[in-house]
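Q: Focus on the shape:
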Amino acid sequence: MNWREWLAPEKIGFVAVGVVIGAIALIGVESACDADVAARTKPASVSPIGAPSREPAIDAELLRCAQLPIEEAGDPACKDLWAKERRRFLGDGEPAQPAEHAIDMFPSHRSPSDGASPKRARKSE
C-alpha cells in the first residue's frame, strides 16, 4: 500500500483516531516517567523562617572586602585577610604526613613487592 491509499477520504477517520490514540499513549508514558522521577527524588529540606542556620556566619570584614570596588582592591587590611583565608583553606604549605603503611588499592591482585613474580608466557612449539 502506498501513502495515498492510507489517506483516502474514506480512511481518514481511522488515521485521525490512530493519531489521537498515539498522542494519548505518548502523554501517558511521559506522565508515568515524570511520576517515577518525582517519586525517586527526595524533597529538599526546608527550614522554617527564623530557624538558626547551620552554616557559619560570614565575617563582616570579609564581606566588606568582597564588596570593595576594583579601585580599592589594594586595601592592606583586605590583603592580610585574604592571605589568612587562603592559608586557612589551602593549608600552610607543609606536606601532609606520610601514611604509616601504603594503602592496598587492589587487594585481590598480588604485586611483585608481595613476593609474586610475573609468569612467563610459554613458547609455542
Notes: Residues 55 and 91 are 21 Å apart (CA to CA).
